[in-house]
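Hi support team,

I'm filing this because I wasn't sure whether my run with 2-acetamido-2-deoxy-beta-D-glucopyranose finished correctly. The job status page said complete, but I'd like someone to confirm that the output block is well-formed before I use it downstream. Pasting the exact inputs I used:
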Amino acid sequence: MIVLIIVVNVAYSLQAGLVVGQGFTSCEYNYNCTANTNLGVINLNGANAADPYQTSDPVSKAEYFWKPCTDFTVSGVTAGALQQSPGASIQDIGMHAQAFCDVLDGYIRFNMMSSTFTRFTYVKCVCGAASTFIFDNEYSSNDFNFIFTSNHCCPNYSPPGVRVTVTVSPGTVLVIIFFTGIIAYFLFGTIFQIVLRKAEGRERIPNVSFWSDLPGLVMAGFKFTFTCGHKLGYREI
Ligand SMILES: *[C@@H]1O[C@H](CO)[C@@H](O)[C@H](O)[C@H]1NC(C)=O
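And here is everything the job wrote out:
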């Protein structure tokens, strides 16, 4: 008796269910818009939308623009983060050339310094599905704090459905080849019998006499094995 066990190993390398960006203790910024942390790599490249993220200070009404990975230009000013205060000219509050990251209260922050080294943009990166960029607060007219919530703030994040690893064991491949062979044998065998041999009825099954004798042959084999050949009259060797 042959017992076939089919084992298909399917391993999905999808995001482990992190809810908030807590638990970080270290951050090292790479200048390709990624950061190495104690929990894995955070890659903001996928969050680099064509248009800059936008938010505003509800009190001062200042508008803020931010691109996670590249500098951009608004009204002749080029930076990675820009401030537009009412009645004032637009100003650079952080350049990607001056980017760095740090850890605050277990969250990763992506930060930038202005070209004048006087203003700082701090973007707290929160692991979550929302994809929002909001103004948090302004400190001393020099430090600007924002909260960015995105899947891209999750360590080792890969967008769903893009990177799926399917691992099939060699045994599984053999089993698949075995069954494919059986199906092909009966399919093409039957077509051969019908088309070329003009077979009818059960004769359309390929090698029908062999297959119909097979159960009997198997039974005889078992009987011979269990009776050591005595009851069927085989001679002992
Ligand atoms: C980014 O830079 C780091 C450090 O140089 C490197 O290890 C990593 O593979 C780079 N990642 C990408 C996506 O280019």
